[in-house]
Amino acid sequence: MDHDVTDVDLLRKRLSAFVRDRVFPCEPLLEAGGPAAGIQRERLRAEAREAGLWALPLPSELGGGGMSLSAYAALAETEGASDHGPAAVGSASLLDVTMLTRHGSPRVRTERLPGLVSGELRTCYAMTEPDTPGTEPTLASTRAERRPGGGWSVTGRKWFVSNAADADLVTVLARTSGSAGDREGLSLILVPTRSPGFRVVRELPVLGATGQYEIEFDRVEVDEDHVVGEPGRALAVAGERLQLGRTLRALRWIGQAQRAFDLMCARAVARQGTRGPLADRQLVQQHVFEALLALRTTRPLVHEAMALVAEGRDAQVEVGLAKTAAARTLQDVADRAVQVFGAAGLGPDTPLPSLFRTGRTARILDGPDEQHIASIARRVLRSRRDPAVVPGS
């Protein structure tokens, strides 16, 4: 479904009010985890459905809003101002819905997609392993072997898997043929978490935050048609998913950086000292300027990347630039906001500790800065050596 500029702007304003008035106040409870957090999350989801804000970028034929990726870009910033915004309004499953729509078997699409869009089913994505560099998926040691009667038996361990404890399904990267280091022979397999042999090993708090887990597969039996894409060709599907996922994260990080900036400006104007408001001090003004400069220069990079991804074009350079810049911007702006707040910015009365934590982890999540820097530089320099090669190829 196409949405004109007026529709998108109206939705953005409504979504902004919902995230500000309903999601922001619930963040401490949601971040604490546990049953109470789950109950509150379901309340928010019910309110989002009632407000007509549910699953806006998901397919309309499955109960979503049918919004195109290009139109949704402006909303991704808005809902992403809170880490809990996408889950509250039903767009957190966009990556999985997109992946399974394009690469899932007919049975998986029929049985799983409606539940993902409605929010009845929850998913997670398991790629990184404890003893394997996350930047080198070809070294994955998790294996899936063919069963005599058909299907697969999955054995291995993954960690830093988001929301694994609450997931109904996990997409796991496993080697189905070949040897460690081979690009071919890796497959993505959709595993129901209620299957015998699946276990959540432990929670892995990230700088004190909940939501990341280590999980184990002990000869978990999975049906043949739960392979996502072609067996042995996982990296193509994973690369497609990563490109969209990194761009969505970058948009949400910009939303969080804008939130930190707004908090900093409000503090500078309101906070009074013996020499007047903080806003009159040059060093505070420098923090405001540098933060605004980071936001204004990063936002166009991120939206350029999303435009290319939405068109289905190669955007590896643009996505790498956007992801790296957005992560840096969030960490930098949140850090400046903390500095302007002083001790209050370190405590529980503002979202700044959470925003700063997200900014710091963002520089490792979905590939560390160093990986993107090296990859993009190689492409650019290769294009200079060979004029026939464009930087994004």
In summary, what is this structure?
The chain is α+β, with helices and mostly antiparallel strands and 393 residues long.
Blueprint (SSEs and pairs):
Elements: H1 5-23, H2 27-32, H3 35-50, H4 69-79, H5 85-88, H6 94-103, H7 106-118, E1 123-126, E2 143-146, E3 152-162, E4 169-175, E5 186-192, E6 198-203, E7 212-222, E8 227-228, H8 234-270, E9 272-273, E10 276-277, H9 282-310, H10 316-341, H11 352-362, H12 369-385
Parallel strand pairs: 1-4
Antiparallel strand pairs: 2-3, 3-7, 4-5, 5-8, 6-7, 9-10
InterPro entries: Acyl-CoA_dehydrogenase, Acyl-CoA_Oxase/DH_mid-dom, Acyl-CoA_Oxase/DH_mid-dom_sf, AcylCo_DH-like_C, AcylCo_DH/oxidase_C, AcylCoA_DH/ox_N, AcylCoA_DH/ox_N_sf, AcylCoA_DH/oxidase_NM_dom_sf
Region (Disordered): 127-150
Subunit structure: Homodimer.
Word description of this protein:
With 393 residues, the chain is of the alpha+beta class. The chain folds into 3 domains: 5-92, Orthogonal Bundle (Butyryl-Coa Dehydrogenase, subunit A, domain 1); 123-232, Butyryl-CoA Dehydrogenase, subunit A, domain 2, CATH 2.40.110; 236-385, Butyryl-CoA Dehydrogenase, subunit A, domain 3, CATH 1.20.140. The chain is built from 12 helices and 10 strands. It has helices at 5-23, 27-32, 35-50, 69-79, 85-88, 94-103, 106-118, 234-270, 282-310, 316-341, 352-362, 369-385, and strands spanning 123-126, 143-146, 152-162, 169-175, 186-192, 198-203, 212-222, 227-228, 272-273, 276-277. The strands form 3 sheets. Strands 1-4-5-8 form a 4-stranded mixed β-sheet. A hairpin with a 5-residue loop joins strand 2 (143-146) and strand 3 (152-162). Helix 6 runs antiparallel to helix 7 (106-118), helix 8 packs antiparallel against helix 11 (352-362) and helix 10 (316-341) packs across helix 12 (369-385). The radius of gyration is 22 Å and the shape is globular. The two termini are 31 Å apart. The model has no long low-confidence stretch (mean pLDDT 93).
